[in-house]
What we know:
The complex is a heterodimer. Chain A is mainly alpha-helical. Chain A is built from 11 helices and 4 strands; from the N terminus they run H-H-H-E-E-H-E-E-H-H-H-H-H-H-H. In chain A, helix 1 (about 1-40) packs antiparallel against helix 10 (about 250-270) and helix 5 crosses helix 6 (about 175-185). Chain B has helices at about 5-25, 30-55, 65-80, 90-105, 110-130, 135, 155-180, 180-190, 195-200, 205-230, 240-255, 260-275, 280-295, 300-310. In chain B, helix 2 runs parallel beside helix 7, helix 3 packs across helix 4 and helix 11 (about 240-255) packs across helix 13 (about 280-295).
Amino acid sequence: MHGASGVRMLLDLVYFAALGVMTGGLYGLLGLGLNLIFGVMRVINVSHGEMLTLGAYTAIVMGLGGVTSPWAAIVAAVMVVTLIGFLIARYLLQPLTVESRIDEQRGMVLSLGLSLVLANLVLAVFGPEYQRVPGKLAEGSIVLGDLIIEKQRLIILIASLVLAAALMAFLRFTLTGKAIRAVGENPEAAQASGISVRKIHLLTFSIGSALAGAAGALITPATYAFPAMGLNYTLYAFSVVIIGGLGSVWGAIFAGFLLGIVESLSVIWLPSGYNTIVGPVLMLFTLIIRPQGLLGVKPGRA
Amino acid sequence: MTQTFSARQVAMILAVVIVAATLPFIAPNDFIIHTVCIALVYAVLAASWDLLYGFAGLISFGHAGFFGLGAYSAALFTTYLGLPAWFGPPVGAVAGALLGVAIGVPTLRLRGVYQALSTLAFSESLHVVATNWYSVTRGTLGFNQHPTFFRMIGELHKSYYVMLATCSVCVAVIWWIARRSRMGMTFRAMRDDDIRARALGINIVQQRVLVFTLSGLFAGLAGAIYAHYVGLVSPSELGPSLTILVIAMSTIGGVGTIIGPAVAAVVLYALTELLHLAGTVYNQIAIGALLIAFVLFLPDGIAGWFVRHGRRTPAKS
């Protein structure tokens, strides 16, 4: 009997870990966008979660307009949020840029104001209600014994990984991607070699925002959208970026899964509701013990 | 360092003092008095944030953590020991100061963004605990079992004078620490160039913990005063929205001046509350837009604008 309960326990662990992997992919994707923006522009974008909100509400608008395909909504969300990201980078962040570098603290405080404006604009336009989209990414679930995984969750995970892989391939193999990395390493040297740091900043912020926008449209069919949803995701993105290491792409993916799994497993030991403490606590421990993050190489100062 | 005031400045200060002292008698209704009471608490909170950022160069993204911890500690302490409300503020101040030490010590090595995010992580952890520890904090319902200074109805005038006195003294003390004391000078030296400050014999480690402790003390005190004034503490007092509001108030008022953030806090809070007709959503949008505009066009804030367009020497040096 004792053996049976041991097996039971183990199965529970596997079950919760699997659920954690499902959400972890999304956290990784969010962290990846935030990390790209920080790594290249050296600015912490507090309104990153609001980009996700805008993506989610683009999907809602598409649904209201009669478009039921979630994939069309994702494409629309990417386009809308890319444009918004571009406008923010061009008209709000560019003026703070002096000699290829954005003023760190002014950038941070500005994005704080932006997050307040965007979240409340969404609230003013759409109201406080939780909203859903009509379409689903897939019907049904996969059943493996006690393990029941919604097909939608699996698709969100796969899509997140595909987007992350696409971004990495873009950064590694294309000339523009290399230019982005060059600006991240050393803006002055990049500028001196003929790269327009100004254009790279616009592009980076647009791509980073687009990833968050895609994430927003991707999760809406499985959950719901509400105006204040962004703030929570900003906190997750911060946790992922700090745990994985600021500027580390692989770190973000790894930390995303780690956060997802630990948060999911915490349900076993922590009373319900407390699982949201996992992100901030893991972030805090990382900052205290290893400020450069698990996979970061740069010293913990900026 | 003696300051000479022009006749116009003296007149302005006198006008503010007279309005503040007679407000209960000239205000057309109690709602205005109540709004100003809370606005005064925000003045202390904004000033304590400015002490950290404007003088020591340390950005706090979790200032609500100090405020909320002060509020909950004071409320719970007075309730469970059956003490009158007056014991609350010292308890809140101690709690805030201890959190300052708790944040300051382990994050000593951190700079810039990392340091900012560590304060956020602390306050978010407290936020989650306050929201979920129902048996102690009553969760999102809010805690309302603790005593208040005075009754809300009928004794509002007494409350107002207590709030005016304590909050004014707090802001004045923060101003004195930042602008007139040796400590303030040390903080500024550390902000401007910590390597040089160290070379001059300043113990950076000690000073960083000290400034976090002082800032936390006043923010915790503000939280406690708030708790014993309104008689209700809820988890949103620990939430990120409050921190954003405080940073907005300080930036708009002008960081590095203490008075700027304090005045901006009173004016902004009072204005947004009194213009409630327009709805909170639009208030938030207006504050956010104002914050963005100030960062872009007037990063020194209103106080900075006054300094540049007046004859007085700049605050930063």
